[in-house]
Q: What sequence folds into this?
C-alpha cells in the first residue's frame, strides 16, 4: 500500500472538512445579523434573535428583531435591557385584553430599559393596544421606526426613568382622562421625529425632570394635548424655533407659556438650526 498516497488523500479530505466547517461557521454566524440605522442615520449590523409572536411571553436581555408580521395576544414581559429592531415593512402587534402591553419589570419590580431602532426606510412598526399601560419600562429610547401605543386609562408610554425620542414616528393615544399619553418620571426629551401624544388628560408629562422639545428635520412635529411638569420646566432647544400656526416659540419662551398650550401642533420654522439636547 502506498502510504504516502493514503496520507495525501486523508490530508486533502481533512482540509476539505475544515474548510466546510469554517464556511458553515461563517454562514451560521452571520445568518442572524440584522441591519439597523442609529439616531444619526448611520447603518450598523448586529446579531439579533427573531421574534415569532404568540401569547404572553418573556424576553430576557438581548437584541431582538421583527422580521415578519407577528402578533402577541398577551403581555410581553422584559426581564433585562432589550434592543428591538423593526425591520422595514414588518409589524409587531401587541394586542392584549387585560393588563399591560409591554412591561419591562421582573418579579422583584426591578425595571429594565428598552431601545427601539428602525431600518433604512423607517417603515417597521410596533403597535401596542392594551387597557392598562401600553409600553412601561425603565428608560425608553426610540431611534426610529413607527411606534404606536393606545390605552384606555393608563399611560400609553410610561418610563420610570427617562423617555428619549430621537427620530421616527411615535403615536401615543390615551383614551382616558386621568393620566398622560407619554410620561417619564425623569426627563422626556424629543430630539426629532413625528410625535403625537393625545389624551383626555395630559399629552406629555414628567414628574422629576424636564420636557425638552426639539427637532432634526423640517417635517418633524410635536402634536400634544398638553404639557405638564411638576418640578422641572418645559423648554425648547437652543437655536430652534417652533410655530403652532399662529405664534412662534423659542428657547427664550417661558416654561409657563409652553405649559399652558392645549391641543397644539408644533412644527419647525423654516431655516432654523436644529440642535440636539445633550
A:
Amino acid at each position: 500500500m502506498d502510504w504516502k498516497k493514503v496520507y495525501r488523500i486523508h490530508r486533502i479530505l481533512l482540509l476539505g472538512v475544515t474548510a466546510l466547517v469554517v464556511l458553515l461557521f461563517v454562514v451560521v454566524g452571520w445568518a442572524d445579523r440584522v441591519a439597523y440605522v442609529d439616531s444619526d442615520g448611520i447603518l450598523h449590523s448586529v446579531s439579533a434573535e427573531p421574534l415569532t409572536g404568540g401569547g404572553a411571553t418573556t424576553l430576557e436581555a438581548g437584541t431582538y428583531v421583527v422580521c415578519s408580521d407577528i402578533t402577541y395576544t398577551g403581555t410581553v414581559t422584559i426581564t433585562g435591557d432589550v434592543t428591538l429592531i423593526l425591520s422595514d415593512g414588518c409589524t409587531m402587534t401587541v394586542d392584549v385584553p387585560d393588563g399591560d402591553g409591554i412591561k419591562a419589570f421582573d418579579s422583584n419590580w426591578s425595571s429594565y430599559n428598552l431601545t427601539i431602532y428602525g431600518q433604512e426606510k423607517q417603515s417597521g412598526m410596533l403597535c401596542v393596544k392594551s387597557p392598562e399601560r401600553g409600553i412601561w419600562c425603565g428608560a425608553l429610547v426610540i431611534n426610529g421606526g413607527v411606534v404606536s401605543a393606545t390605552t384606555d386609562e393608563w399611560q400609553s408610554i410610561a418610563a420610570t426613568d427617562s423617555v428619549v425620542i430621537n427620530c421616527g414616528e411615535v403615536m401615543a393615544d390615551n383614551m382616558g382622562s386621568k393620566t398622560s399619553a407619554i410620561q417619564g418620571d425623569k426627563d422626556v426629551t424629543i430630539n426629532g421625529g413625528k410625535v403625537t401624544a393625545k389624551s383626555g388628560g395630559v399629552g406629555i408629562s414628567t414628574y422629576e425632570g424636564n420636557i425638552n422639545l426639539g427637532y432634526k428635520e423640517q417635517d418633524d412635529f410635536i402634536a400634544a394635548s398638553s404639557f405638564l411638569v411638576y418640578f422641572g420646566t418645559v423648554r425648547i432647544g437652543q437655536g430652534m424655533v417652533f410655530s403652532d400656526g399662529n405664534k412662534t416659540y423659542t428657547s427664550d419662551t417661558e416654561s409657563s407659556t409652553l405649559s399652558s398650550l392645549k391641543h397644539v401642533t408644533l412644527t419647525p420654522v423654516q431655516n432654523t438650526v436644529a440642535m440636539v439636547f445633550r
Observations:
- Residues 10 and 134 are 61 Å apart (CA to CA).
- Confidence is low (pLDDT under 50) at residues 3-31.
